[in-house]
Amino acid sequence: MANLKLEISPVSPISQEIFNKTQKGLGFVPNMYVKMGNNAALLDAYTYSYNSFRANSGFTPVEQEVVFLSVAYENNCEYCMAAHSFVGDVMTKVPTEVTNAIRDGKQIPDVKLAALSKLTRSLTANRGIVPQGEIDEFLAAGYSETNVLGIIAGIGVKTLSNYSNHITNPEVDVPFAGRSWKK
After folding, report:
1. Are 49 and 18 in contact (CB under 8 A)?
2. Residue 172: left if φ>0, alpha if ψ -120 to 50, beta else—which one?
3. CA distance linking residue 11 with residue 85, whole number of Å
4. Are 49 and 71 in contact (CB under 8 A)?
5. 23 to each of 27, 31, 50, 96, 177, how far by Cα in Å?
6. Given this model, what pLDDT does residue 129 score?
7. Are 182 and 85 contacting, i.e. CB atoms less than 8 angstroms apart?
8. Residue 8 above 60 pLDDT?
9. CATH code linked to domain 60-179
10. Where are the domains of the chain?
11. pTM value?
């Protein structure tokens, strides 16, 4: 895995504004944000897309975490798996057996969430090219075509952070450390 050696440079006003909002909202600035903040376009795009996905994807908070964890699993992002396992467990109340199934690459016990994770993982692994049969299975589980597009939005958001984390290797923050993960 690459490890980009970032030069310490002044924080851009855009990144600083995001850091300030994040500090106020979470009580800390995640190490991932600090690393991404070295390029204001990356951090701004990520936080905007993340917030839009949360507000507009058409998924419940539990379903959103299933999407994020499924993408992070496929992209082998240790930081995001730890962070979203914590967020899922503590903030959005994803059942632990669902979070653990995704983390372990096993079958999710909830049929609808299993269909969501399966299509998300397939779309991620296959770069958006999946057979119609996979879409049909997802729709048969109770989702809509609009939800397929919501998955794509989630994949875009997580791919930004997953790729950045692969290159910058942020240390897993203390709040997330109890859910550290390796594939």
Report:
1. no
2. beta
3. 29
4. no
5. 5, 12, 16, 27, 19
6. 97
7. no
8. no
9. 1.20.1290.10
10. 60-179
11. 0.92
Structure tokens at 140: 């048969």
Q: What is the DSSP letter of 57?
A: S
Q: pLDDT above 70 covers what percent of the chain?
A: 95
Mean pLDDT of the chain: 94
- Measured CA to CA, the distance from residue 73 to residue 9 in angstroms comes to 32
Q: For residue 73, is pLDDT > 70?
A: yes
Residues 92-112, mean pLDDT to the nearest whole number: 95
Query: Could you tell me the two tokens for 85?
Result: 């396992």
- Amino acid found at 17: E
Q: Residue 152 class from Cβ within 10 Å (0-12 exposed, 13-18 middle, 19+ buried)?
A: middle
Token reading at 54: 């949360």
pLDDT of amino acid 7: 55
Token pair belonging to 151: 């998955």
